[in-house]
Amino acid sequence: MDFELSDELRQIREEVRRFGENEMAPVANEYDEKEKFPHEVVEKGAEMGLTGTSIPVEYGGAGYSTLESIVIAEELYAIDPGIAGAVLGTSFGCEAIMEFGTEEQKERFLPDVAAGDKISGAAISEPDTGSDVSSVSTRAEKDGDEWVVNGNKMWITNGSVGDFFVVLCRTDPDADGRYNGFSQIVVEADRDGFEADKITGKLGIRASDTAELLFDDVRVPAENLVGTEGMGFLQQMQFFDATRTGVAAQGVGIAKGAAEGALEYAQEREQFGQPISEFQAIQHKLAEMFTDIEAARNLVYKSAWSVDNKEEQLTTLASMAKEYASRVAVDVANEAVQIHGGAGYVDDFQAERFYRDAKITQIYEGTTEIQKNVIARELLGKGI
Ligand SMILES: Cc1cc2nc3c(=O)[nH]c(=O)nc-3n(C[C@H](O)[C@H](O)[C@H](O)COP(=O)(O)OP(=O)(O)OC[C@H]3O[C@@H](n4cnc5c(N)ncnc54)[C@H](O)[C@@H]3O)c2cc1C
Fold it and tell me: Which residues of 105-117 are buried (b: 16+ CB within 10 A; e: fewer)?
Protein backbone atom coordinates (compact mmCIF):
# COMPACT_ATOMS: atom_id res chain seq x y z
CA MET A 1 0.00 0.00 0.00
CA ASP A 2 1.40 3.39 -1.00
CA PHE A 3 -0.18 6.75 -0.13
CA GLU A 4 2.36 8.81 -2.09
CA LEU A 5 1.32 10.62 -5.26
CA SER A 6 3.78 10.20 -8.12
CA ASP A 7 6.28 13.02 -8.78
CA GLU A 8 4.53 13.66 -12.08
CA LEU A 9 1.15 14.04 -10.42
CA ARG A 10 2.55 16.37 -7.78
CA GLN A 11 4.04 18.48 -10.53
CA ILE A 12 0.72 18.60 -12.41
CA ARG A 13 -0.99 19.59 -9.17
CA GLU A 14 1.43 22.49 -8.66
CA GLU A 15 1.02 23.73 -12.23
CA VAL A 16 -2.75 23.56 -11.96
CA ARG A 17 -2.69 25.41 -8.65
CA ARG A 18 -0.57 28.18 -10.20
CA PHE A 19 -3.06 28.40 -13.08
CA GLY A 20 -5.90 28.75 -10.58
CA GLU A 21 -4.13 31.41 -8.55
CA ASN A 22 -3.08 33.45 -11.58
CA GLU A 23 -6.06 33.05 -13.93
CA MET A 24 -9.05 32.22 -11.74
CA ALA A 25 -8.67 33.86 -8.33
CA PRO A 26 -8.40 37.47 -9.61
CA VAL A 27 -11.65 37.23 -11.62
CA ALA A 28 -13.67 34.88 -9.39
CA ASN A 29 -15.80 37.57 -7.72
CA GLU A 30 -16.61 39.25 -11.02
CA TYR A 31 -17.88 36.11 -12.76
CA ASP A 32 -19.83 35.07 -9.69
CA GLU A 33 -21.48 38.46 -9.38
CA LYS A 34 -22.35 38.72 -13.08
CA GLU A 35 -23.32 35.02 -13.42
CA LYS A 36 -21.17 35.00 -16.53
CA PHE A 37 -19.57 31.96 -18.17
CA PRO A 38 -15.77 32.52 -18.12
CA HIS A 39 -14.95 31.88 -21.79
CA GLU A 40 -11.61 33.70 -21.43
CA VAL A 41 -10.45 31.45 -18.58
CA VAL A 42 -11.68 28.35 -20.44
CA GLU A 43 -9.51 29.36 -23.43
CA LYS A 44 -6.45 29.64 -21.20
CA GLY A 45 -7.34 26.35 -19.49
CA ALA A 46 -7.53 24.66 -22.89
CA GLU A 47 -3.89 25.58 -23.53
CA MET A 48 -3.02 23.59 -20.39
CA GLY A 49 -5.14 20.60 -21.36
CA LEU A 50 -7.77 21.31 -18.70
CA THR A 51 -10.69 21.06 -21.11
CA GLY A 52 -10.03 17.43 -21.87
CA THR A 53 -8.40 15.97 -18.78
CA SER A 54 -9.96 12.54 -19.16
CA ILE A 55 -10.22 12.48 -22.98
CA PRO A 56 -7.69 9.96 -24.34
CA VAL A 57 -4.50 11.29 -25.91
CA GLU A 58 -5.40 9.84 -29.33
CA TYR A 59 -8.41 12.20 -29.42
CA GLY A 60 -6.38 15.24 -28.37
CA GLY A 61 -7.02 15.06 -24.61
CA ALA A 62 -4.64 14.81 -21.70
CA GLY A 63 -5.60 11.17 -21.14
CA TYR A 64 -5.53 11.41 -17.38
CA SER A 65 -6.86 8.57 -15.24
CA THR A 66 -9.80 9.22 -12.91
CA LEU A 67 -7.32 9.53 -10.03
CA GLU A 68 -5.26 12.14 -11.88
CA SER A 69 -8.38 14.04 -12.94
CA ILE A 70 -9.70 14.27 -9.39
CA VAL A 71 -6.39 15.54 -8.02
CA ILE A 72 -6.63 18.34 -10.61
CA ALA A 73 -10.29 18.98 -9.74
CA GLU A 74 -9.50 19.30 -6.04
CA GLU A 75 -6.86 21.97 -6.72
CA LEU A 76 -9.09 24.07 -8.98
CA TYR A 77 -12.21 23.79 -6.80
CA ALA A 78 -10.11 24.97 -3.84
CA ILE A 79 -9.53 28.22 -5.74
CA ASP A 80 -13.00 28.86 -7.16
CA PRO A 81 -15.73 26.24 -7.64
CA GLY A 82 -17.75 28.22 -10.22
CA ILE A 83 -14.88 28.79 -12.64
CA ALA A 84 -13.37 25.36 -11.93
CA GLY A 85 -16.70 23.79 -12.89
CA ALA A 86 -16.86 25.87 -16.05
CA VAL A 87 -13.34 24.91 -17.17
CA LEU A 88 -13.28 21.23 -16.20
CA GLY A 89 -16.95 20.78 -17.07
CA THR A 90 -16.55 21.68 -20.75
CA SER A 91 -16.28 17.96 -21.52
CA PHE A 92 -19.26 16.90 -19.38
CA GLY A 93 -21.21 14.26 -21.30
CA CYS A 94 -18.18 13.06 -23.24
CA GLU A 95 -17.76 10.26 -20.67
CA ALA A 96 -20.64 8.46 -22.42
CA ILE A 97 -19.01 8.85 -25.85
CA MET A 98 -15.66 7.64 -24.50
CA GLU A 99 -17.22 4.61 -22.83
CA PHE A 100 -19.91 3.59 -25.32
CA GLY A 101 -19.34 5.59 -28.52
CA THR A 102 -18.19 4.30 -31.89
CA GLU A 103 -14.80 5.19 -33.31
CA GLU A 104 -16.53 7.60 -35.71
CA GLN A 105 -18.30 9.35 -32.82
CA LYS A 106 -15.10 9.63 -30.80
CA GLU A 107 -13.30 11.21 -33.75
CA ARG A 108 -16.24 13.50 -34.53
CA PHE A 109 -16.86 14.84 -31.02
CA LEU A 110 -13.86 14.46 -28.70
CA PRO A 111 -10.96 16.38 -30.33
CA ASP A 112 -12.84 19.71 -30.55
CA VAL A 113 -13.83 19.48 -26.88
CA ALA A 114 -10.29 18.56 -25.83
CA ALA A 115 -8.97 21.57 -27.76
CA GLY A 116 -11.44 23.88 -26.03
CA ASP A 117 -13.14 24.70 -29.34
CA LYS A 118 -16.41 23.02 -28.37
CA ILE A 119 -18.35 22.50 -25.16
CA SER A 120 -20.50 19.47 -24.35
CA GLY A 121 -23.17 18.63 -21.81
CA ALA A 122 -25.18 15.73 -20.40
CA ALA A 123 -28.95 16.20 -20.42
CA ILE A 124 -30.85 13.83 -18.15
CA SER A 125 -33.02 15.88 -15.76
CA GLU A 126 -36.37 17.30 -16.82
CA PRO A 127 -38.88 19.63 -15.16
CA ASP A 128 -40.77 16.59 -13.80
CA THR A 129 -37.85 14.15 -13.66
CA GLY A 130 -34.97 14.51 -11.23
CA SER A 131 -34.03 11.71 -8.85
CA ASP A 132 -36.23 9.20 -10.68
CA VAL A 133 -34.26 9.00 -13.92
CA SER A 134 -36.50 6.16 -15.14
CA SER A 135 -39.35 8.64 -15.59
CA VAL A 136 -37.56 10.59 -18.35
CA SER A 137 -40.17 11.57 -20.91
CA THR A 138 -38.11 13.29 -23.63
CA ARG A 139 -38.98 11.23 -26.66
CA ALA A 140 -36.85 10.22 -29.65
CA GLU A 141 -38.61 8.53 -32.56
CA LYS A 142 -36.97 6.94 -35.55
CA ASP A 143 -37.90 8.45 -38.91
CA GLY A 144 -35.92 6.86 -41.73
CA ASP A 145 -32.28 7.37 -40.92
CA GLU A 146 -32.93 10.12 -38.38
CA TRP A 147 -34.04 10.47 -34.76
CA VAL A 148 -36.67 13.10 -34.05
CA VAL A 149 -36.35 14.45 -30.51
CA ASN A 150 -39.13 16.18 -28.55
CA GLY A 151 -39.20 17.27 -24.92
CA ASN A 152 -37.61 19.46 -22.24
CA LYS A 153 -34.47 19.08 -20.19
CA MET A 154 -33.93 21.07 -17.00
CA TRP A 155 -30.87 22.31 -15.05
CA ILE A 156 -28.44 21.41 -17.80
CA THR A 157 -24.84 22.40 -17.13
CA ASN A 158 -23.38 24.27 -20.15
CA GLY A 159 -26.92 24.46 -21.53
CA SER A 160 -26.67 27.90 -23.11
CA VAL A 161 -22.96 27.72 -24.05
CA GLY A 162 -22.75 24.09 -25.17
CA ASP A 163 -22.27 22.88 -28.74
CA PHE A 164 -23.72 19.41 -28.23
CA PHE A 165 -25.44 17.37 -25.55
CA VAL A 166 -25.72 13.67 -24.79
CA VAL A 167 -29.47 13.51 -24.20
CA LEU A 168 -31.20 10.67 -22.38
CA CYS A 169 -34.35 9.93 -24.38
CA ARG A 170 -37.12 7.40 -24.29
CA THR A 171 -36.84 5.53 -27.60
CA ASP A 172 -39.22 2.65 -26.88
CA PRO A 173 -42.10 3.59 -24.57
CA ASP A 174 -43.53 0.06 -24.86
CA ALA A 175 -40.35 -1.67 -23.68
CA ASP A 176 -40.79 -4.23 -20.90
CA GLY A 177 -39.18 -3.31 -17.59
CA ARG A 178 -38.79 0.07 -15.98
CA TYR A 179 -35.21 0.61 -17.10
CA ASN A 180 -35.46 -0.50 -20.71
CA GLY A 181 -36.34 1.54 -23.77
CA PHE A 182 -34.04 4.53 -23.15
CA SER A 183 -31.16 5.66 -25.35
CA GLN A 184 -28.43 8.29 -25.21
CA ILE A 185 -28.50 10.48 -28.29
CA VAL A 186 -26.17 13.35 -29.20
CA VAL A 187 -28.06 16.51 -30.13
CA GLU A 188 -26.06 19.43 -31.53
CA ALA A 189 -27.12 22.91 -30.44
CA ASP A 190 -27.26 24.23 -34.00
CA ARG A 191 -30.02 21.82 -35.07
CA ASP A 192 -33.39 23.33 -36.02
CA GLY A 193 -35.89 23.15 -33.18
CA PHE A 194 -33.28 23.29 -30.39
CA GLU A 195 -33.48 26.12 -27.89
CA ALA A 196 -31.65 26.88 -24.63
CA ASP A 197 -32.94 29.18 -21.93
CA LYS A 198 -30.29 30.24 -19.37
CA ILE A 199 -31.22 29.87 -15.71
CA THR A 200 -30.07 32.73 -13.48
CA GLY A 201 -30.34 33.44 -9.78
CA LYS A 202 -28.40 30.38 -8.61
CA LEU A 203 -27.21 30.19 -4.99
CA GLY A 204 -23.68 29.21 -6.00
CA ILE A 205 -21.37 28.08 -8.84
CA ARG A 206 -22.68 31.10 -10.68
CA ALA A 207 -19.88 31.15 -13.27
CA SER A 208 -20.98 27.69 -14.38
CA ASP A 209 -23.71 27.86 -17.00
CA THR A 210 -27.09 26.20 -16.36
CA ALA A 211 -30.06 26.17 -18.74
CA GLU A 212 -33.34 24.60 -19.67
CA LEU A 213 -33.25 22.90 -23.06
CA LEU A 214 -36.21 22.61 -25.41
CA PHE A 215 -36.40 20.10 -28.25
CA ASP A 216 -39.13 20.71 -30.80
CA ASP A 217 -38.95 18.10 -33.57
CA VAL A 218 -35.15 18.22 -33.53
CA ARG A 219 -33.76 15.89 -36.19
CA VAL A 220 -30.38 14.24 -35.77
CA PRO A 221 -28.78 11.46 -37.85
CA ALA A 222 -29.28 7.87 -36.68
CA GLU A 223 -25.52 7.61 -36.09
CA ASN A 224 -25.85 10.09 -33.19
CA LEU A 225 -27.16 7.30 -30.95
CA VAL A 226 -24.45 6.45 -28.39
CA GLY A 227 -24.00 2.82 -27.37
CA THR A 228 -26.84 0.35 -27.56
CA GLU A 229 -30.39 1.37 -28.42
CA GLY A 230 -32.67 0.74 -25.46
CA MET A 231 -29.81 0.47 -22.95
CA GLY A 232 -29.44 4.21 -22.28
CA PHE A 233 -30.62 4.06 -18.67
CA LEU A 234 -28.03 1.45 -17.68
CA GLN A 235 -25.32 3.29 -19.62
CA GLN A 236 -26.31 6.43 -17.72
CA MET A 237 -25.94 4.70 -14.36
CA GLN A 238 -22.44 3.53 -15.33
CA PHE A 239 -21.58 7.09 -16.37
CA PHE A 240 -22.43 8.23 -12.81
CA ASP A 241 -19.75 6.02 -11.25
CA ALA A 242 -17.03 8.22 -12.71
CA THR A 243 -18.86 11.55 -12.57
CA ARG A 244 -20.02 11.11 -8.96
CA THR A 245 -16.41 10.51 -7.98
CA GLY A 246 -15.67 13.80 -9.73
CA VAL A 247 -18.33 15.63 -7.71
CA ALA A 248 -16.85 14.11 -4.55
CA ALA A 249 -13.50 15.61 -5.54
CA GLN A 250 -15.25 18.96 -6.00
CA GLY A 251 -16.42 18.65 -2.40
CA VAL A 252 -12.90 17.97 -1.14
CA GLY A 253 -11.60 20.97 -3.11
CA ILE A 254 -14.29 23.30 -1.78
CA ALA A 255 -13.65 22.14 1.80
CA LYS A 256 -9.91 22.56 1.36
CA GLY A 257 -10.26 26.09 -0.05
CA ALA A 258 -12.62 27.09 2.75
CA ALA A 259 -10.47 25.52 5.49
CA GLU A 260 -7.21 27.05 4.27
CA GLY A 261 -8.85 30.50 4.23
CA ALA A 262 -10.14 29.97 7.76
CA LEU A 263 -6.74 28.80 9.03
CA GLU A 264 -5.10 31.93 7.66
CA TYR A 265 -7.79 34.25 9.01
CA ALA A 266 -7.74 32.66 12.47
CA GLN A 267 -4.05 33.50 12.82
CA GLU A 268 -4.50 37.11 11.70
CA ARG A 269 -7.69 38.12 13.49
CA GLU A 270 -7.15 39.24 17.08
CA GLN A 271 -9.71 39.40 19.88
CA PHE A 272 -9.15 39.71 23.62
CA GLY A 273 -5.55 40.67 22.82
CA GLN A 274 -4.62 37.49 20.97
CA PRO A 275 -5.16 35.77 17.62
CA ILE A 276 -8.44 33.87 17.64
CA SER A 277 -6.42 30.76 16.70
CA GLU A 278 -5.26 30.73 20.34
CA PHE A 279 -8.79 29.88 21.51
CA GLN A 280 -9.31 26.17 21.93
CA ALA A 281 -12.80 26.42 20.43
CA ILE A 282 -11.29 27.68 17.17
CA GLN A 283 -8.43 25.16 17.30
CA HIS A 284 -10.93 22.32 17.64
CA LYS A 285 -12.94 23.59 14.70
CA LEU A 286 -9.79 23.69 12.56
CA ALA A 287 -8.71 20.24 13.77
CA GLU A 288 -12.08 18.74 12.84
CA MET A 289 -12.20 20.52 9.49
CA PHE A 290 -8.79 19.26 8.37
CA THR A 291 -9.43 15.76 9.72
CA ASP A 292 -12.72 15.54 7.82
CA ILE A 293 -11.04 16.74 4.64
CA GLU A 294 -8.29 14.14 4.94
CA ALA A 295 -10.86 11.38 5.49
CA ALA A 296 -12.95 12.56 2.53
CA ARG A 297 -9.90 12.83 0.29
CA ASN A 298 -8.84 9.25 1.05
CA LEU A 299 -12.33 7.96 0.28
CA VAL A 300 -12.40 9.91 -2.98
CA TYR A 301 -8.97 8.59 -3.98
CA LYS A 302 -10.13 5.05 -3.29
CA SER A 303 -13.27 5.62 -5.33
CA ALA A 304 -11.20 7.01 -8.24
CA TRP A 305 -8.82 4.06 -8.00
CA SER A 306 -11.77 1.66 -8.11
CA VAL A 307 -13.17 3.39 -11.22
CA ASP A 308 -9.78 3.19 -12.94
CA ASN A 309 -9.43 -0.49 -12.05
CA LYS A 310 -13.09 -1.34 -12.65
CA GLU A 311 -13.30 -2.79 -9.15
CA GLU A 312 -16.49 -4.57 -8.19
CA GLN A 313 -17.27 -2.08 -5.41
CA LEU A 314 -17.00 0.99 -7.60
CA THR A 315 -20.69 1.98 -7.59
CA THR A 316 -20.88 1.81 -3.79
CA LEU A 317 -17.61 3.66 -3.35
CA ALA A 318 -18.62 6.40 -5.80
CA SER A 319 -21.84 7.01 -3.85
CA MET A 320 -20.04 6.82 -0.51
CA ALA A 321 -17.42 9.29 -1.71
CA LYS A 322 -20.02 11.71 -3.06
CA GLU A 323 -22.26 11.50 0.00
CA TYR A 324 -19.40 11.94 2.46
CA ALA A 325 -17.29 14.52 0.62
CA SER A 326 -20.30 16.72 -0.14
CA ARG A 327 -21.31 16.62 3.53
CA VAL A 328 -17.76 17.59 4.50
CA ALA A 329 -17.83 20.43 1.95
CA VAL A 330 -21.04 21.87 3.40
CA ASP A 331 -19.95 21.44 7.05
CA VAL A 332 -16.43 22.80 6.55
CA ALA A 333 -17.66 25.78 4.52
CA ASN A 334 -20.14 26.51 7.31
CA GLU A 335 -17.39 26.43 9.98
CA ALA A 336 -15.14 28.59 7.79
CA VAL A 337 -17.81 31.30 7.76
CA GLN A 338 -18.15 30.93 11.54
CA ILE A 339 -14.41 31.42 12.06
CA HIS A 340 -14.55 34.60 9.97
CA GLY A 341 -17.39 35.99 12.14
CA GLY A 342 -19.13 38.95 10.47
CA ALA A 343 -16.40 39.12 7.82
CA GLY A 344 -17.50 35.68 6.66
CA TYR A 345 -20.96 36.98 5.87
CA VAL A 346 -19.86 39.33 3.08
CA ASP A 347 -17.87 38.79 -0.08
CA ASP A 348 -14.62 40.42 1.18
CA PHE A 349 -13.35 36.91 1.88
CA GLN A 350 -13.89 33.72 -0.10
CA ALA A 351 -15.61 32.03 2.85
CA GLU A 352 -18.97 33.40 1.77
CA ARG A 353 -18.61 32.07 -1.77
CA PHE A 354 -17.44 28.61 -0.67
CA TYR A 355 -20.44 28.46 1.66
CA ARG A 356 -22.81 29.12 -1.25
CA ASP A 357 -20.91 26.93 -3.72
CA ALA A 358 -20.66 23.89 -1.42
CA LYS A 359 -24.37 23.10 -1.43
CA ILE A 360 -24.60 22.02 -5.06
CA THR A 361 -22.38 18.99 -4.35
CA GLN A 362 -25.26 17.53 -2.31
CA ILE A 363 -27.75 18.03 -5.14
CA TYR A 364 -26.41 17.35 -8.63
CA GLU A 365 -25.38 13.95 -10.00
CA GLY A 366 -27.89 12.43 -7.57
CA THR A 367 -28.82 13.99 -4.23
CA THR A 368 -27.43 12.88 -0.88
CA GLU A 369 -30.58 10.86 -0.26
CA ILE A 370 -30.17 9.04 -3.57
CA GLN A 371 -26.51 8.23 -2.77
CA LYS A 372 -27.64 6.67 0.51
CA ASN A 373 -30.29 4.68 -1.36
CA VAL A 374 -27.60 3.37 -3.75
CA ILE A 375 -25.26 2.42 -0.89
CA ALA A 376 -28.04 0.63 1.00
CA ARG A 377 -29.24 -1.11 -2.17
CA GLU A 378 -25.74 -2.42 -2.85
CA LEU A 379 -25.28 -3.50 0.80
CA LEU A 380 -28.56 -5.36 0.77
CA GLY A 381 -27.83 -6.91 -2.60
CA LYS A 382 -30.89 -5.44 -4.24
CA GLY A 383 -30.71 -4.79 -7.98
CA ILE A 384 -31.84 -1.46 -9.42
C1 LIG B 1 -26.70 23.87 -10.83
C2 LIG B 1 -27.25 22.57 -11.29
C3 LIG B 1 -26.63 21.91 -12.34
C4 LIG B 1 -27.17 20.69 -12.80
N5 LIG B 1 -26.61 20.10 -13.90
C6 LIG B 1 -27.26 19.05 -14.48
C7 LIG B 1 -26.82 18.52 -15.74
O8 LIG B 1 -25.81 18.96 -16.32
N9 LIG B 1 -27.53 17.51 -16.29
C10 LIG B 1 -28.65 16.98 -15.70
O11 LIG B 1 -29.26 16.10 -16.28
N12 LIG B 1 -29.09 17.45 -14.51
C13 LIG B 1 -28.42 18.47 -13.89
N14 LIG B 1 -28.87 18.98 -12.69
C15 LIG B 1 -30.07 18.40 -12.08
C16 LIG B 1 -29.78 17.60 -10.82
O17 LIG B 1 -29.11 16.41 -11.14
C18 LIG B 1 -31.13 17.38 -10.10
O19 LIG B 1 -31.52 18.63 -9.58
C20 LIG B 1 -31.03 16.34 -9.00
O21 LIG B 1 -30.82 15.06 -9.54
C22 LIG B 1 -32.30 16.29 -8.13
O23 LIG B 1 -33.45 16.25 -8.91
P24 LIG B 1 -34.65 17.29 -8.62
O25 LIG B 1 -34.06 18.65 -8.57
O26 LIG B 1 -35.71 17.04 -9.59
O27 LIG B 1 -35.11 16.93 -7.17
P28 LIG B 1 -36.22 15.75 -6.72
O29 LIG B 1 -35.85 14.52 -7.43
O30 LIG B 1 -37.55 16.36 -6.99
O31 LIG B 1 -35.92 15.65 -5.23
C32 LIG B 1 -36.44 16.54 -4.24
C33 LIG B 1 -36.06 15.99 -2.86
O34 LIG B 1 -36.64 14.69 -2.66
C35 LIG B 1 -35.64 13.75 -2.36
N36 LIG B 1 -35.95 12.44 -2.95
C37 LIG B 1 -36.37 12.16 -4.21
N38 LIG B 1 -36.52 10.84 -4.39
C39 LIG B 1 -36.16 10.24 -3.22
C40 LIG B 1 -36.07 8.90 -2.77
N41 LIG B 1 -36.36 7.88 -3.58
N42 LIG B 1 -35.66 8.67 -1.50
C43 LIG B 1 -35.35 9.71 -0.69
N44 LIG B 1 -35.41 11.00 -1.04
C45 LIG B 1 -35.80 11.27 -2.30
C46 LIG B 1 -34.37 14.32 -2.98
O47 LIG B 1 -33.20 13.78 -2.39
C48 LIG B 1 -34.54 15.81 -2.69
O49 LIG B 1 -34.16 16.09 -1.38
C50 LIG B 1 -28.30 20.15 -12.16
C51 LIG B 1 -28.89 20.81 -11.09
C52 LIG B 1 -28.39 22.00 -10.65
C53 LIG B 1 -29.07 22.71 -9.52
Answer: bbebbbbbbbbbe
